[in-house]
Amino acid sequence: MHAWPASEVPALPGKGRDLRIHDTATGGRVTLAPGPVARIYVCGITPYDATHMGHAATYNAFDLVQRVWLDTKRQVHYVQNVTDVDDPLLERAIRDGIDWVGLAERETALFREDMTALRMLPPQHYIGAVEAIPGIVPLVERLRDSGAAYELDGDIYFSVDADPHFGKVSNYDTELMRHLSAERGGDPERPGKKNPLDPMLWMAAREGEPSWDGGSLGAGRPGWHIECVAIALDHLGMGFDVQGGGSDLIFPHHEMGASHAQTLTGEFPMAKAYVHAGMVALDGEKMSKSRGNLVFVSRLRRDGVDPAAIRLALLSHRYRDDWEWTDQVLQDAVERLGRWRAAVSRPDGPSADALVEELREALSDDLDTPTALAAVDRWAALQTAEGGTDDSAPGLVSRAVDALLGVAL
Length: 409
Description:
The protein has helices spanning 53-71, 87-96, 100-117, 129-145, 174-183, 224-235, 250-265, 297-302, 307-315, 327-344, 353-364, 369-385, 393-405, and strands at 19-23, 28-32, 37-42, 75-82, 125-128, 149-152, 155-158, 200-204, 220-222, 240-246, 271-277, 280-282, 285-286, 323-324. The protein contains 13 helices and 14 strands. The protein is globular, with a radius of gyration of 22 Å. The protein has a five-stranded parallel β-sheet with strand order 5-4-3-10-11, sandwiched between helices. The protein has two domains: 25-277, HUPs (Rossmann fold, 3-Layer(aba) Sandwich), CATH 3.40.50.620; 305-405, Anticodon-binding domain of a subclass of class I aminoacyl-tRNA synthetases (Four Helix Bundle (Hemerythrin (Met), subunit A)). By secondary structure, the chain is an alpha/beta fold.
């Protein structure tokens, strides 16, 4: 599976700062100081609907992580999956009377278009669950053969009791875990499981559903969590720098994935930091495909909204915060974009050297984008009110906003 084209990231004078970011597992900030190559895995879409603003907010957050790392003169090894076979996808295909493969391909293509328009940096490895199956099967077999997994009516389940570190990503109590498991694709009430929280690793073939050769596992398809584990271990190995996604993935997805990987390798932790973006609401409720309360990136683009304004709307909120999408949020972003573009269109202006350092400091401080935007606002206001004599300033501001915030002026 191929990703989308990369937009050029301008080089800035000097060097950026190491990123201090909130780690879900420890509940506090950690300073990330990767080696020459920073490694990040971000969970991708289940492609049964177009990219909504909740998706865009999540991928924007981890695009910023990459930009901060690139500004420190590091390379970035970024991996993202596509869950191109799963119950919600199959259910949507049946509902709409279309082929599930065609649905997945169509929505993945639209996602690529949206990511390109929003100038999100692409992953080096963009892997679908289906193409990962040859690597998933041996991992499930190893877990089963080691006693960390068991068979139940043909399905294979992971035993959470096999990982002594289970629970150290979310730090949730058992009652909350059980509730979220039922809400987010698990089956805690299924009779015969050793622990209600045990997640499925391999689902035996069901009539009318797609399945693949699972070797000694029998025909079937992979569970949700082992998909990401197989892809991450294959392309990044253990102990990579950031595991990212929306806050709704803390449990069960990231908790279970960590336990799978830790049990397979005997190493801890799977990732040095677990970083999660907040949820975006509309009309008082979290945007979700199940509720249907969605604002789609593609529809905004078709309506003529500049993708740079969409990106500024996302940047106006702290990545970890839950917030609500409104027409006013977008209007404010459109007006801000206009002010910034007018400011950098002049032949000279106030010195921008201090602004670049303000942007670096704000972003290194847990991706503090509201502070970063306010710094550019001040420079633009000074440019409008007083101007300046530095003929390199407008160009430097434009390059800095592009390199660090992903907004093309």
